Amino acid sequence: MKLSRRQIVIATAVTLGTAYAPNVLAQEKVIKFGMAQDFTKVYTFVTAEYSQGQRDYFTLVNERGGVNGWKIQAEIVDTGNETQRGIEAYERFKREGVLLVDPLSTPVSRAIVPRALNDKINLITMFSGRSDAADGSVFPYVIPMSASYWSQASVLIEYIARQEKDLKGKKIAIVYIDTPFGKEPLPLLREIAKRRGFELLPFPYAPPGNEQAAVWTQVRRANPNWTLIWGGGVGQTVSLKEAIRNGISPEKIASVVWLSESDMKVVGNEAAKGTLKYEGAASGRDPKIIQDILKDVVAKGKGAGPQDLVGTSYYNIGVLSAALMVEGVRKGLEISKGAALTPQTLNEGLRSISKFTAEGLAPPITVTKTDHQGGGMGRVAQWDGRRWVAKSDWLSADQDLVWDLITQSSAEFKKGN
Amino acid sequence: MFYRLAGIRHTNYLKARQLFPLQFDRLLIGGLCVLALLAPLYLPSLYLNSYLMPWLLWVTAALGLNLLMGGAGQVHLGYGAVMGIGAYAAGHAARSGIPFEIALLLGGLAAAIIGTVFGAAALRVKGLYLAVTTLALQYLVDFVVLHVGAISGGSQASLQLPAVKILGQSVRSDAGLYFVALAGCVVVTIFMLNVRRTSLGRALAAVREKDYAAEILGVSAFRYKLLAFWVASFIGGTAGALLAFCYYKAVSPEQYHIDLSIQMLAVVIVGGLGSVLGCFFGAGLILLAPAFLNQLLSAVSTGLGLKLGTDLMTHAPLILYGSLIVGFLLFEPLGLAKIYDNARKMFLVWPFRHMRR
What we know:
The complex is a heterodimer.
Chain A: H1 5-19, E1 30-37, H2 44-63, E2 71-78, H3 83-96, E3 100-101, H4 106-119, E4 122-124, E5 142-143, H5 149-164, E6 171-177, H6 180-183, H7 186-196, E7 199-205, H8 213-222, E8 226-230, H9 234-245, E9 253-255, H10 261-267, E10 276-279, H11 288-298, H12 313-336, H13 343-350, E11 379-383, E12 388-390, H14 399-416
Helix pairs in contact in A: 2-11, 2-12, 3-4, 9-10, 12-13
Chain B: H1 13-16, H2 23-42, H3 45-71, H4 79-95, H5 100-119, H6 127-147, H7 149-152, E1 159-160, E2 164-166, E3 169-171, H8 174-195, H9 199-209, H10 211-216, H11 221-248, E4 250-251, H12 258-271, H13 276-303, H14 310-331, H15 336-349
Antiparallel strand pairs in B: 1-4, 2-3
């Protein structure tokens, strides 16, 4: 039989039309989360790994029957790290009735903060966003649930202090990207330097940080005992490469949380051996929760991405954030006595998370109505050439100084409103 | 047939010189104005506050840049910074208790002063060289904002803004803020429609075509180049302030980054240099297309039950977006406004094709 063009067109249209019957008919009990993240511009592979972890964990929860029968549905949209697209996505999510939004982007989350506070929708800003959101009394709906950059700096200094016994007279350099994010730890480090008696040497480099040669020759001349690197994306790998080129031992370099297996591959797995970093969630496949995902999700072919990324640092951070969200849902359902959650009851749930470790993936995290940081704990991990090995137990330090800065900054925010 | 040209005779200068001599155009614009005024009644707040309002604000800003680029022929790569200056100046003014209306003007004024200082480079350099000097403005402003905590608002570099107050009445609702943005856009649009018919507009056109020829005609290139920067920066500053107050409700450096400058440039070029209508089309494409393409793709994929990976779902809209821009410019290098103009010219005399001019 010979088909005319017209018949083919009609046939295609009919097939497409029938296929297009909206297939979301199931009247399931669903809880919606909005993931408006940056897949394409700045955070790129960070988001890809983080989001994969989140989705795999949600699949795990849903496969096991959800949270008291409630299934988690995560809507994902790309914002390109642009504030206006983030706001657009947030407003659309609001209309679709999501209970929380997770932008994983400092600029986007900061742009959403005024709206989220106003609309009473939970904004999760794990390892990103405003550090002063730790003050739950001023930011009731902005919940980082993770150690702020200030706390991360304090953990790193505490670790260094334990190695050195006494920090008096020692020199600690910080090489940071010259943006609000990079400059954030400086006021805290100055205070800690005063308290512990070491000398702080700040070295800024221009964003995006692909050229740092001049900075590192200065660092070499200053000859610090320890060096902190504070950047994200390309700046981090360039920092490490330049440091190694200038003969600074990676074992004396400690990084903010944003350093991953992929970064180490860029620097050179062997060359970067010994590099230290702050860790907010355990890396690797050992934690039970990751084993469960491998067994019940990935092995059944339901994984959200490439299998070899399972267990990387950012993947595990994604799993931790998803686990905290789900724990918030569980607590929220306890509060609402099984009734459908609203953003308000989820907020109460999230803010009553207590000593939650995600089965050994993270330090005990306790979120309260006043403390959204969850304790500010973390540990230091070292790159052994293949993976990150924990070098300390979960610890927190100098939280009084951290909280001075938090309340100071949140008071400033309050004044502006 | 549609425009009913027959029988239209302009018997006096006033009629002949009106902005829209054809009744059809007047009706069309009147209809659009009515639609815009009634938008809060029929549009859900999502469309009002995340598509329509930012679109109007972007158009307002782009119109200012278009005066500079299309009107006076001066390239500007730091227009985002100009908008940022306006936003920061107005923000700090409003935070210190100055009424919103005056704060807005102060924002415009601050942007105009700084913008003109950098515009002075235009007196010496042209074209690509000017583009680079204006780019310096962008980086300088970014640097100063980041390094002066008093401007950026402390370690979090985010300046919270008080609510918009018009004549002492605080405006908080979506509809209210939309009308503020609409008012700003209408004022600037009317100004831009008329500026071409004034001595300023003609002088700018003369400078644009050849500045020394303009000098020979007695048009001071020195004066009019600076004036073009002054006016464009003032519009940019107020538009930036409106964008901050109505839409972002806070000012932070990344909102007025180099990205915004590039996007504004794209709005003007894709829309059509020198065209008022072009700014509307251009802003529509550059600002709104990414969001709509995202939604379109996700609707199609969920509707068809396709299981597309996140990588494809997030990158495909960008590919489409880029090809839309390139496609439109290949189809009509003079911009989207020219496409509309071509269609309009066709329908003016349709179906008598031979009458087309």
